[in-house]
Amino acid sequence: MADAIETSKTRRVYLTLRDRITSGELTPGTRLPSEPDLADLHDVSRVTIRRALAELEREGLISRRPGAGTFITARMIKRPIVADLSNALAHLVEMGRSTDVRLLQFGYLEPAADVAEALRLDDSEKAQRSVRVRIIDGEPFSYLVTHVPARIGTTYTEQELAALPLLTLIERSGVKVDRATQTISATLAGPGVAEALGIDIGSPLIALTRVVFDVKRRGIEHLVALYRPDRYSFQMDLVRIDSGGDRLWSPVERFRGGNNFNGTATAD
């Protein structure tokens, strides 16, 4: 219990200082107070302060100089990828080709009842299940669990899935993608996900569940994607319209240009 409390305090101090740095309140070159002063300020032990500072130093946000003190560095904070909710399937292939992927699991099984129902599978029909981590700039940002009906999954290999976007492989099999439904919520990282994404157990994550359908309304992919919120965010542009006398917000498609991630859908 004592260890858990100490870990919680360390996390609180770390997040407080990190927010002050990333918001620009603490500018590069600023000298932080001494460890005893920080301990008094945050009402924690010096051990807790040292652990929090060690994490900030690991991220390159501070530099500890023996005999001189601890200073804020000039390292640029990377902006998260921004995904456009108004066009959920746009540019998936482009994004897949701009990022790397690490395939953790690949196999065939009878999926859980909720997945089978979402994909409208027959009784005992198997699905190809994969677990992947997608990486940008050498750092993981998403943990993806996908189920694809076996009739489609058998058209590609484990090696191909590790090298190509899943949507490309599905369409290569002759399937015509038509529509998708998705739900966005939040969750906490379990041990396996935390290790794969390089974060602490219990860290907050953006959770997205998407089911993709073909032109015959058959489910062809079930995706559960977990994203690091410091490296990924969603955005929707809205316009004010008249509807039966009411003034409502309606989504609009964003302008797309260049090869950046702004305005792309989630990678799978």
From TrEMBL:
PROSITE patterns in UniProt: HTH_GNTR (PS50949)
Keywords: DNA-binding, Transcription, Transcription regulation
Taxonomy, superkingdom: Bacteria
Membrane-spanning ranges: none
Residue ranges annotated for the HTH gntR-type domain, each copy included: 7-75
MF-aspect GO terms: DNA binding; DNA-binding transcription factor activity
GO biological process, one term: negative regulation of DNA-templated transcription
Designated name of the protein: GntR family transcriptional regulator
